[in-house]
Design goal:
Elements: E1 10-17, E2 27-34, E3 37-45, E4 52-55, H1 60-71, E5 76-78, E6 88-90, H2 94-121, E7 124-127, E8 130-133, H3 145-154, E9 161-162, H4 168-180
Antiparallel strand pairs: 1-2, 2-3, 3-4, 5-6, 7-8, 7-9
Length: 185
């Protein structure tokens, strides 16, 4: 889940999404940060209109700097899936960038939630380049995971990687690569 524009000066926090109200665009509210400082509140009603930005008290100058920074970013290539046409570009504005960040953050959260459900409910492992699980066995129900994983490793003719034995971020990256394909972004 990668947003169109690569930059790290403008970020979001406190993103709240109303999926039920999202029609043409993502319905959300968020706090916009510029260089780590909260500068504005953003919201989109999800009906295809613009994202509105309101400067926090005393932050109008920082909001103007953030808007200037966004306008200085290179135009974004839009993938419109139109064959035999020249590529389409859009100039970056702060509201466009905030939309992209909200979409990317929301998609990342949904992906993390799906991973958490999988890792908590299944004994996931990679064998022969495929992500597999043991049907009917819930990871949460295994009392002695170390012994269970050791016996699982011993029963395999080829090496396996059990996701529950990995650090959370490493397990997530491996899971994502197998669930989304070779290029998960």
């Amino acid at each position: 889940m990668e947003n169109i524009t690569k930059q790290d000066r403008i970020t979001l926090k406190n993103l709240k999404v109303a999926d039920f109200a999202s029609e043409e665009t993502l319905c959300f509210t968020a706090t916009v940060l510029f260089d780590g400082a909260s500068i504005a509140e953003a919201h989109n009603d999800g009906r295809g209109g613009s994202t509105f930005l309101y400067a926090l008290s005393g932050k109008q100058a920082l909001l103007a700097k953030a808007e200037a920074f966004a306008k200085g970013l290179p135009p974004a290539l839009l993938d419109l899936d139109q064959e035999d046409e020249d590529p389409h570009y859009i100039n970056i504005t702060l509201d466009f960038l905030v939309d992209e960040l909200a979409d990317a953050l929301h998609a990342q959260r949904k992906l993390r939630a799906a991973f958490s459900r999988d890792i908590g409910n299944k004994v996931l492992f990679v064998k022969g380049g495929k992500l597999l699980f043991i049907k009917g066995i819930k990871l949460k129900a295994i009392a002695d995971r170390k012994a269970y994983f050791a016996s699982l490793h011993a029963r395999q003719a080829q090496p396996i990687v059990i996701l529950a034995e990995l650090a959370s971020d490493e397990a997530f990256a491996l899971w994502k690569r197998h669930v989304l394909g070779e290029n998960p972004d």
